[in-house]
Amino acid sequence: MKKDVYISIKGSQDYGSDGDSMELTTAGKFYDKDGKYYLSYVEGELTGLEKCTTTLKVEPCGVVTMMRYGQTNTHMIFEKGKCHIGHYETPYGDFTISVTANDINVSLDENGGNIDIDYIMDINNVSRSRNGISLTVRA
Hints:
The chain is mainly beta and 139 residues long. Helices cover 0% and strands 73% of the residues. A 10-stranded antiparallel beta barrel has the order 1-2-3-4-5-6-7-8-9-10.
């Protein structure tokens, strides 16, 4: 059964010489299906991904998959120490991305919890940034 939850999201990007961060709280849905946790929310104007739905799938082995659908589409897999290649479709053009998770910490149960991911992202093998996303889920 899907639960209504509040999700606190902290995100950061560091391009070497400068960085960027944001923090927000939004409403979303949280549920357990086939032993995996799912977290879903609609992006807003603050993130620049308006009208886009983001869903995270958290597997018991610690692999986290982020899927975005709407005016921006992507499928990113975060697995500690492994590089995953995907596509990022935006209204301004499509990009090839590679994502390598440096660290993943997941502490979830049926009541909510935390997801923390530290990762490196390359865009079209040209731009590299160190990123972090931290989500707290509570009813």
